[in-house]
Amino acid sequence: MSGNSSAMTDQEKHRLRPYRFLIVSALMIIFGLAEISTAYSRSFFGISAQQAPTIFTFSGAVIGALYAVAGLFVLTMKKWAATLAIGLLLVVIVGRILLVAAGIYPVNTFENAFGIILGTAIAAVFAIYIGLKRNSFRP
Prior knowledge:
Order of helices and strands: HEEHHH
Helix content: over 70%
Radius of gyration: 18 Å
Structural class: mainly alpha
Number of strands: 2
Strand content: under 5%
Distance between the termini: 29 Å
């Protein structure tokens, strides 16, 4: 070490990377599964949808599945998979925006609007984080 006992060595940083990516990918998978669950139950933590079940169910389930698959890609720690995960997250983000614009996702209450905004922002943060850490993935 370089005399500063609080400084992390490259080896220590390398050991932390997989844990950070494990946490990120686990959260992405959990959030994706929660999205699928919400699509079928049309209710999640007080956020509810009264739209036609077929359109809401299908679109929400697809977005949730893409979110979860992106998390699985991150688990591989491969650069190509990280690139695909970012692409899937971008589809999730654009899909959520389009579903709100089309009136399929309800934003008629504060809870619904806040949930959709927060969920979309979290997906964006994951995409940015993976993009910034892309060099940490194996070729």
